[in-house]
Sequence to fold (424 residues):
Amino acid sequence: MTDRHPALDELRQWRVTIPKGRMVYDESDTPKAFYRVESGCVSLLVHSEDGHRQILAFCLPGDTFGLDLAGARATAAEATTASVLTRFPLAVLTDGGLNARTMTGLVAAATDMNVSLSMHLRGLGHVLAEDRLMWFLDWLADRQSVSRHGGLVQPPMSRRDIADFLGLAQETLSRTFARLEVQGLLRVSDIRRLILRPRRPTNSDNPFRQAA
Amino acid sequence: MTDRHPALDELRQWRVTIPKGRMVYDESDTPKAFYRVESGCVSLLVHSEDGHRQILAFCLPGDTFGLDLAGARATAAEATTASVLTRFPLAVLTDGGLNARTMTGLVAAATDMNVSLSMHLRGLGHVLAEDRLMWFLDWLADRQSVSRHGGLVQPPMSRRDIADFLGLAQETLSRTFARLEVQGLLRVSDIRRLILRPRRPTNSDNPFRQAA
DNA sequence: CGGCGATTTGAATTACATCAATCTAGGTGG
DNA sequence: CCACCTAGATTGATGTAATTCAAATCGCCG
Fold:
């Protein structure tokens, strides 16, 4: 899981440790490297001129991000929690001398991000805040492989981050959490420890996310 | 513009013509090829079990789509207007024998889609329907290079498609068009011919979208 | 223990979705 | 060529869910 694209290991690389809140890169920076999350959580986000904050993706262990070929970053990347990353200089792409397997790994890393962004767009398709939040929690549960571990989910990010990810006001998110708890879909053991009620067995083992 | 990644031309390929409304591929299909739009418009979309339709991306001439490495398509692709596509079999990725330039082109095509999806997520960050619609129209104007051509924009897609792209009800979209026209931001010459009021010159020539 | 940011709660407002009906345009066939 | 038909688009009325502003509470860190 943490090494979804082992072909990348052949690239020049090194570990970097990012403290919570630190930016990995900023919007409009010139891309110099891409990264793989080893531990922690990094969010890709943009700031509108009107102060609005929108998180495009949460990158969890195993995810690759920052593989941008344009002249400037379209998003910023910020450590949501203290994180350890593997840094791959982008220069390898122009240097040449890469074997086919590695190049395929790069394409795979890029398309993985596509899948992630597509899922997000799909999640925002939900009109009701409750549906959006449940969708998010299901996603997180899948990523943390807690489908059958008693439903304990531990969001590594703040409520504000979740709100900015789901396109909701913080207050709305807070109220939605409360409403889901009343409905018995969820129990907030701690602000970062949630217990999901087991989902109905229908397509619990979805064939499409198996090899993801 | 239509040949943003000329390296791909070295791949095995052929032209296909898709009539309006025809699916290029469906959700959960096994990916066999990826495509470049030569003319027309293709939308990438998903259908929720509750009947909700969400368009993730409009692919216009020059855009590449369908470069999926997973075992199944995450989205469907449907011709919004009659379209001509170039079809590239995905087998080339496993066959090997690709030169570095072509592989880089593939990575570039994949990251282009990332940019497109990111822009969309950013657009959905707008809370007000008016802002979302203006963002969409600005995007379309950019893609049609009409910044300085008198502001004529010709959306190739229906109102329903725009609504499903922006996550709005069709009725809301219709009312929002009307409201923008009242405010003088827009004139609806014809349902598929809009005239945008020139934007304030502030960052009209944004350095970041120069080389797209 | 104190303080500041994060989160929650409350009240009022507003924008959007929904349901329903009307209107328009494009296409077909007589 | 025109009447008809249907899908797409608009308009209206109404309910509701989310935003906003404001204040209280919680919780972490020093």
Summary: The beta strands of chain B are 14-18, 23-25, 33-47, 53-59, 64-65, 76-89, 152-153, 186-190, 193-196. Residues 92 and 98 of chain B are 8 Å apart (CA to CA). Chain B touches chain A through 46 residues (CB under 8 Å).
